[in-house]
Amino acid sequence: MSKRIIIFGAGGHAKTVVDTAEKEGVYEIAGLLDQRLPAGEQVYGCTVLGNDDWLELHADTIDGVIVAIGDNWTRGLVVQSLKRRFPALPFATTVHPSAQIARGARIGAGSVIMAGAVVNSDAIIGEHSVLYPNTSIDHDSRIGSFVSFAPRCATGGNVCVGDYTAVAIGAVLIHGRTIGEHCVIGAGATVVSDVPPHTVAYGTPARAVRSRAAGDRYL
Question: What is the spatial distance between Cα 148 and Cα 167, in angstroms, rounded to a whole number?
Answer without folding.
Answer: 6
